[in-house]
Design a protein that fits this description.
Rossmann fold; five-stranded parallel beta sheet; alpha/beta; 229 residues; 8 helices; binds thymidine-5'-diphosphate
Amino acid sequence: MTGFFIALEGSEGAGKSTQARLLTEWLQAAGKPVLLTREPGGTALGEQIRDLLLAPGAYAILAEAETLLYAAARAQHVREVLLPALASGSVVVCDRYVDSTLAYQGGGRGLPLASLLGVQEFATGGLLPDLRILLDLPVEVGLARRLSGSEAVNHLDRAGVAFHERVRSTYFDLIDADPACWAVVDADGPPEIVANRVMEAVAARLPLFPPVDPDGLTGDARATVVETR
Ligand code: TYD
């Protein structure tokens, strides 16, 4: 039995975490075993690496070292969590994966794509998503949302508009290079409208899932969240 691997990608403030949760609830309501997880994180080691990378006032980590830390978290996550879940037939919803490294450390920080791809191949053993969803939002809108919202602000949120423009345009370069692997979802709008767009994108790839009215979702549709904190 093999599962289905969905990676959610996007810039700051695109509402990825909310959408990951709503997508998970919808898939569960459709009767699928679902695992919701995130990067960096998803394992005890990954969450510790996350704290190192994202804690406010974090030590200034160089781009190369940052890349290897994200990759170390990913290597553990793939083998400890993702592969077993996929082998047992679960749908995996992962909040960020390889393309975040290509967009942030490649586009944002300017590291060469070829080097990053080599590191990713080693870290993941070649595990790639079946579907990547880009939650897309103009940079200014996303940053304004993030900096005015209640969510914790990490150092990348403060990296500036030019950095995040490069991140966004790198996502579009990746999509142009391999459009069949991607769905682009307009993340501008109320969360439930964006959730409908995400569900449509997933349903188009998983036609066996009947669409579920998101208004009908209740707290009974609980996600299996990898909680390692
Ligand atoms: P997160 O809290 O998940 O932010 P967001 O809500 O914007 O997804 O923090 C993840 C941060 O880590 C985000 O700013 C992007 C960054 N990141 C990378 O730079 N490279 C990576 O490979 C990954 C997985 C994340």
